[in-house]
Amino acid sequence: MPILDVDKARTVVVVKRSLSPGFAGIPNPLFAADNTLMYFADGKKAILDLTAALAKA
Q1: What is the pLDDT of residue 21?
Q2: Are 6 and 12 spatial neighbours (Cβ–Cβ below 8 Å)?
Q3: For residue 1, is it within any domain?
Q4: Which of 31, 32, 34, 44 falls 20 to 30 Å from 5 in CA-CA distance?
Q5: Are 17 and 40 in contact (CB under 8 A)?
Q6: 13: part of which helix (H) or strand (E)?
């Protein structure tokens, strides 16, 4: 699996259902980064909504 250096991106959008740390219990520092936008939703619904909104723009 490739490693993505998203911490170096100008803007990062994370689609997640909650802020819970997950199975490992380790918090992800990317979630608190200044360049990160959190979108709390079901993954499939979130992507469908985002692509629909972009298609209208």
Answers
A1: 79
A2: yes
A3: no
A4: 44
A5: yes
A6: strand 12-16
Asked whether 47 and 16 are in contact (CB, 8 A), the reply is no
Residues paired with 13 in a beta bridge: 37
16: β partners: 40
> Is residue 46 situated within a structural domain?
yes
Joined tokens for residue 53: 């909104």
pLDDT over 90 for what percent of the chain? 67
In 3-state terms, what secondary structure has residue 5? coil
Nearest C-alpha neighbor of 39 from the set 53, 19, 56, 25: 19
Instruction: Give the predicted TM-score (pTM) of the model.
Output: 0.72
12 CA to centre of own chain:
7
